[in-house]
Design brief:
The protein is an alpha+beta fold and 133 residues long. Helix content is 29%, strand content 17%. Strands 3, 4, 5, 6 and 7 form a 5-stranded mixed beta sheet that branches. A two-stranded antiparallel sheet has the order 1-2. The radius of gyration is 14 Å and the shape is globular.
């Protein structure tokens, strides 16, 4: 949460990045099966630019699940922990597992994150560049 710059990027890898390496927001994705995932905007960067292997259940929801807007929350006078309820995914620190995701995963996740942002399910936690979708 809050403004964050990728700690895994090097001068060599930055030029090859497909997605931005900084973030100031978190996104909630809720699926019809009841699974709710909370992730940083940078999750796309971690998957596409660093080869992070996302959890299988998350990948399955993104690839096959039905996105629902039922996760919308009124953020006024709520604590940050109440706003960001759900299974946290993609908040990387330290070493992480490298692997692959199915073809089309990154594009589908990006589209779902855009839909979630349009539905009010993105929380920007500090003044900084926003998710470019």
């Amino acid at each position: 949460m809050g403004f964050h710059v990728c700690e895994y990027c090097t001068a060599e890898t930055q030029a090859k990045n497909r997605f931005q390496r900084n973030s100031s927001g978190d996104v909630n994705l809720t699926f019809a099966n009841g699974h709710r995932w909370v992730m940083p905007d940078m999750i796309l960067h971690y998957v596409a630019d660093h080869g992070w292997k996302a959890p299988a259940e998350f990948v399955d929801d993104v690839m096959n699940g039905e996105f629902t807007k039922s996760g919308h929350v009124q953020t006024r006078s709520m604590s940050l922990s109440d706003i960001l309820t759900g299974t946290r995914v993609g908040y990387l620190t330290g070493p992480f597992e490298i692997g692959s995701v199915p073809d089309g995963f990154t594009e589908k996740l990006e589209k779902l994150m855009q839909q979630a942002g349009a539905a009010g399910l993105r929380l920007q936690t500090k003044e900084a560049p926003v998710y470019r979708g």
